[in-house]
């Protein structure tokens, strides 16, 4: 079963479209929740059991230091250069290869991937 995803406002629209075409249920903040705070986004992701897709580095601090809501997974992209549809393709490929991201804060770089367990609450 494919995870339900939440694309943060900074996640490119062509990547959201790519993931949807690949069969993923993607809630896009840019389409349906512009202006929501990070706290509200985490609450939605947690309540709806959606994995967060983001380029925003603040989520690590919010989860680990400020005890905000914890969704099933956070995929934090730190790519240096990319086409607008590339993050979606990359996420789809990673999710096809591994379901071991549940309960993880995953940092995705151009040439590496690092996982850290999310806090249990």
Name the features.
alpha/beta, six-stranded mixed beta sheet, 6 strands, Rossmann fold, 121 residues
Can you give me a brief rundown of this structure?
This protein is of the alpha/beta class and 121 residues long.
Characterization of this structure:
The protein has about 120 residues and is of the alpha/beta class. The protein has one domain: Rossmann fold (3-Layer(aba) Sandwich), CATH 3.40.50. Helices cover about 35% and strands about 25% of the residues. It is built from 5 helices and 6 strands; from the N terminus they run E-H-E-H-H-E-H-E-H-E-E. The chain has helices spanning about 15-20, 30, 40-45, 60-65, 85-95, and strands at about 5, 25-30, 50-55, 75-80, 105-110, 115. A 6-stranded mixed beta sheet has the order 2-1-3-4-5-6, with helices on both faces. Helix 1 packs parallel to helix 5. The longest helix is centred in the last third of the chain and has 12 residues, at about 85-95. The mean pLDDT is about 95.
Assembly of the depicted chains: single chain
Alpha-carbon distance between the two ends: 24 Å
Tell me, what's the shape?
globular
User: Strand portion, in percent?
Assistant: 15-25%
Question: The CATH topology, please?
Answer: Rossmann fold
Task: Summarize the helices and strands and which ones pair or pack.
Blueprint: E1 4-7, H1 13-21, E2 26-28, H2 29-32, H3 38-47, E3 50-54, H4 58-64, E4 73-78, H5 86-97, E5 104-109, E6 113-117
Parallel strand pairs: 1-2, 1-3, 3-4, 4-5
Antiparallel strand pairs: 5-6
Helix pairs in contact: 1-5
